[in-house]
Design brief:
- By secondary structure, this protein is an alpha/beta fold.
- The protein is built from 25 helices and 25 strands.
- The strands form six sheets. A six-stranded mixed β-sheet has the order 9-14-13-12-10-11, with helices on both faces. Strands 4-3-2-1-8 form a five-stranded parallel β-sheet. Strands 16-24-23-18-19 form a five-stranded mixed β-sheet.
- It binds beta-D-glucopyranose.
- The site of beta-D-glucopyranose has 6 residues, from loops.
Length: about 750
């Protein structure tokens, strides 16, 4: 206890609460940083080797009582100073009880860190991350993350394993649902916003928690979209496509990074000093904690780069993995390896410093409980305000994919609506793939949302078919319901449990039973309003539906307020304005399919065989990246670069004008793309460099301006330098990635080198 008091006192004296180190710290923040470092060193000096390893050990909640790696029980190990953090222990009372043991009974009274996967909400669940990316509104993602942090911290959590910032261009990969989609620019904007939301202005604020950018790096490139498979990608693609969201997350101050399960070019990131030390620390300037993924240190053995757990520990420590999540490799092996001279003590000390610094920055030495109490939890968690925010986020994340003949919005005077599809009544589906402490029974299902929205309408429900499986026995009922009703809402998609980790798919097409349901219900609904609502965590290849159904709404999994948000859109209380953050393929065989591809020497031409295409189906997307309709219409015009010639280091102003040309209020996402026409390395046919979501009344026009800096025009050249090369560039602006409004400018003078050659891949 004596030490505990003195540590707390030191923390107070040091003005506890320094924020994460900024790239160029002000004199005040560097003085604060130096004080924090002195404090951390003073704590480190107290620790035995075993206690140091304890700080690097994250124990899983499940193992606390019975797990083989904690035979004495979690509390006993905490008392002995052998655990630094927990994953999965939640609740103000539960965390308080363990924290009390740590700060009152452990040798040096060092507080524990409680971590949890708070991915898209804690108890109030927000849209899944790919859905929020469809809002093209980073401020929205920041707000959701902030609310998630407020709820989770009230329940004792100080560390989340989010945001997931992996670019994903292969929707067979189930984890595409956890990220912001296929585009590095959108991905970077969302990554930074989410980090800001989780961490707030100051980590020491008891409503802030440490964010973790994951999974570093290239996880989304897992071969064949198969989870955990190796990623075979070039260094250039890694730097130009997969790393920008990490750069943004680190720039926003992310306190932690988690390496990926998937080997990059044969080297598992948990053993890659190149990736973690040279790239992440060295080039991206990351100074925070590197936490292993679940049991991923031990998995260096099946990867085939370590023969024993000891070797796995040595590789991970050498690579720079600070904290071992769940597999017990560090606690079993690190101390003996240091004692026998295999691992330098300084490596362990540095890792412990980073953990202690995170604890210090979070204010844990000042208030180990971070003011988490059951009363605070009861006040904050699932509050009306949080639910309202989730509903607003849900509405903004919806994408209107098709709306022939103004099928939508539905009339409020309909006497009856048939709602068909098992997902419509599924609370689990509503809250989506990684719902932390969210509860299906607290979610508004689509069916409930529609019923609540219109008391005068008789809303009838038939399951029709489950999203997976082949049972068609209930289709006849659904067809009957559709024939009898005045309008039909048909809900198609995939079970939320079929998205996320370890949920790779071979087929993005609808399974046979769902397709049969869609076909028969569409026939029965001929002549009446028919709307397909998609609930899914990845783009699905639905060519038949896209051709045959008059209206399609991409609703994803919108969280606790799913049903209300969808009902707001279907009945026109809210005019949808989201855009697809991923390209939708026509067939699984087209993937990976993304808008920012390179041209090839033989770009696709439908009428020319010897071009880059498939011979058994169209080679174009069903819906392009950035696409989404509205109940009103917009026009984007007057694309103007501020000048037509500039030097490589200059920035360029670009303005464009957007007008609401329809008769309803609505949102448009104005998008700006650039193409480097001729470069030393083939560049994408276009890539996103700016976007703005604007709300306009009918007839209203608004100028939108962007500033492009050298980073927006840069790429990695043949020597792996980050450069802006002279030459002509084409700008495109509009409401989707297939925008045709174009303008040109020229960069003159010499090549600008923004960064020297990257450290060579090893
Ligand atoms: C996932 C991580 C997650 C961790 C802890 C792993 O299986 O890959 O994203 O943070 O589990 O739950």
């Amino acid at each position: 206890m004596r030490n505990g008091i003195s540590l707390v006192a030191i923390a107070f004296a040091a003005g506890c609460g320094a924020t994460a180190p900024a790239p160029s710290p002000s004199p005040v923040s560097s003085a604060r940083g130096a004080r924090a470092d002195r404090f951390v060193d003073s704590v480190l000096a107290l620790l035995s080797l075993d206690e140091k390893v304890g700080q690097l050990t994250m124990a899983p909640a499940e193992g606390m009582q019975t797990g083989p790696r904690m035979p004495n029980g979690g509390a006993a190990q905490v008392r002995a100073g052998l655990i630094g953090s927990f994953i999965g222990v939640t609740g103000a009372a539960e965390t308080h009880a363990l924290q009390r043991v740590a700060v009152e009974e452990s040798p040096h009274h060092i507080p524990l860190l409680f971590s949890f996967d708070v991915i898209h909400g804690y108890r109030t669940i927000f849209p899944v991350p790919i859905a929020e990316a469809a809002s093209f509104d980073p401020a929205l993602a920041e707000r959701s993350a902030r609310i998630a942090a407020r709820e989770a911290t009230a329940d004792g959590i100080a560390w989340t394993f989010a945001p997931m910032v992996d670019i994903a261009r292969d929707p067979r990969w189930g984890r595409i649902v956890e990220g912001a989609g296929e585009d590095p620019y959108l991905g970077a904007a969302m990554a930074a916003a989410r980090v800001r939301g989780f961490q707030g202005e100051k980590l020491s604020d008891p409503e802030s928690m440490l964010a973790t950018a994951k999974h570093f790096a290239g996880y989304g490139a897992s071969e064949g979209g198969r989870d955990y498979a190796k990623a075979e990608l070039s260094e250039r693609t890694l730097w130009d496509v997969y790393l920008p969201p990490y750069r943004a997350a680190v720039g926003a101050g992310a306190g932690a990074v988690m390496p990926s399960f998937s080997a990059v070019a044969g080297s598992p990131p948990h053993a890659s000093a190149w990736l973690l030390r040279d790239v992440l620390h060295g080039r991206l300037g990351f100074r925070g904690v590197i936490v292993s993924d679940w049991a991923a240190i031990e998995e260096l053995i099946p990867h085939g780069v370590a023969a024993t757990r000891g070797e796995a520990a040595r590789l991970a420590m050498r690579a720079g993995v600070d904290v071992d999540m769940a597999d017990g490799v560090y606690p079993d092996s690190l101390a003996p390896l240091v004692r026998n001279g295999t691992i330098a003590p300084a490596l362990v000390d540095d890792a412990v410093r980073r953990v202690l610094r995170a604890k210090y920055d979070l204010g844990l030495f000042a208030d180990p409980y971070r003011a988490a109490t059951p009363e605070r939890a009861a006040r904050v968690i699932l509050s009306d305000a949080n639910r309202a925010a989730a509903r607003a986020a849900g509405r903004e994340s919806i994408v209107l994919l098709k709306n022939d003949a103004h099928t939508l919005p539905l009339s409020r005077s309909l006497r009856s609506i048939a709602v068909i599809g098992a997902l419509a009544g599924d609370g689990r589906g509503a809250i989506g793939s990684w719902a932390a402490r969210g509860r299906p029974e607290e979610a508004v299902t689509l069916l409930e949302g529609l019923r609540r929205a219109n008391s005068g309408t008789d809303v009838r429900f038939a399951k029709g078919a489950r999203p997976e499986g082949s049972d068609t026995s209930e289709i006849a009922n659904a067809v009957k319901l559709a024939s009898d009703a005045q309008a039909v809402v048909l809900v198609l998609g995939e079970d939320a449990e079929r998205t996320g980790e370890a949920e790779s798919r071979q087929r993005l097409e609808l399974p046979a039973a769902q397709l049969a349901l869609a076909q028969r219900v569409t026939r029965a609904a001929r002549g009446k309003p028919l709307v397909v609502v998609l609930m899914n965590g990845r783009p699905l290849a639905i060519p038949w539906v896209a051709d045959s159904v008059p209206a399609i709404v991409e609703a994803w999994y919108l969280g606790t307020e799913h049903g209300d948000a969808v009902a707001d859109v279907l009945f026109g209380a809210y005019d949808p304005g989201g855009k697809m953050p991923v390209t939708v393929p026509r067939a699984t065989g087209e993937v990976p399919l993304y808008y920012a591809h390179t041209n090839t020497g033989r770009p696709f031409k439908a009428e020319d065989k010897y071009t880059s295409r498939y011979n058994d189906g169209p080679s174009t997307p069903l819906f392009p990246f950035g696409f989404g309709l509205s109940y009103t219409t917009f026009s984007v015009s007057d694309l103007r670069p501020s000048r037509d010639r500039l030097r490589a280091g200059d920035s360029l102003g670009v303005t464009v004008s957007v007008a609401n040309t329809g008769d309803r209020d609505g949102d448009e996402v104005v998008q700006l793309y650039v193409r480097d026409d001729v470069a030393s390395v083939a560049q994408p046919v276009r890539r996103l460099v700016g976007f703005r979501r604007v709300s306009l009344h009918p007839g209203e026009r608004q100028p939108v301006s962007f500033t492009l800096g050298p980073e927006d025009l840069a790429f990695h050249d043949l020597h792996m330098r980050r450069v802006v090369e002279p030459g002509t560039f084409t700008l495109y602006a509009g409401s989707s990635s297939d925008a045709t409004l174009a303008a040109h400018f020229t960069v003159v003078g010499d090549t600008l080198v923004l960064a020297p050659a990257t450290p060579r891949m090893q």
